[in-house]
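Morning F.,

Quick status update on the modeling queue. The single chain you submitted on Monday has been processed. Sequence for confirmation:
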Amino acid sequence: MTRTSQSVTPDGVGQDSEGPATVLLRGPSEETWGPIWDQRDPRTMNVLAITTRLDPLEWIDACETQLGELPVKTGAIRIGTRIDPAVPSERRSHEGVDLPLTAVERPSDLDELYTAINLYITEWLHTDQQTVIWLESLTPVIEHVGAKRTISFVESLAERLRMTGAIAYVRVDPRDHDDHTLSLVGDAFDRVVEVESSGPSVATDTREESVLRTLRTAEGPVSVETIAGRVAASENARHPEGREPANARLVEIDLYHACLPKLADRGIVSVEWDRRLVKLALEPARVDALLERRDGSER
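Structure tokens below.
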């Protein structure tokens, strides 16, 4: 039975060992973390991040910022990444922390995704920490396989989580799906939590921040192509050697179809879609406040 809470920090979510195995976080995609970490000690957790857009190294940065220190063990599964079949996984280094990384190339391959998740759960069974799974977005799965198969996947995963005492937090942005789909998928979870936005904000993922910084210094509308070039250059400069460079053309596609529509929906930017031109829809002082709020959350 699904229970719904309107609280941003619902009591007991993830605290009670007899509590839910699966929690659906319904809210704007810019509310990256939701209530997951509010009452948790990183020393009691092993955390597996399943990312769709956020780079695993960026996730590690955000996780450490939010918790103050990293969990005992961390791992990542990247959905939608092309990999060499002969090398199914790798380890990424982050300031002395080994990050086991597995890639699931096709969001529609739920068997592969389930197997990847189960490998981490099984590997961590011998530890004293609870395994906490965070899925950045359920949207790619729903879009590729539909609600029915998504529900079957969630239910199968929940059985494994209950057997091992693990818990999964899964995020979905209601703006990306119709009410019928949201209702069907929500019923498959032990608990549904409504994560309300407190107003305009910049997501933990740095792509939105780069867009706003580019527009903030511009004197007028800027083309999507120009913004993409600057975002790609910023991401390449920030990440360590060995990471596949950001491709400006792919960044442009992501901006046009994902990032910019969400910023426009929140009233932060204005887009001339036919001309592919973007400008700020807020006063510069409000944009500065958003960026300062994000900078403050990272310290």
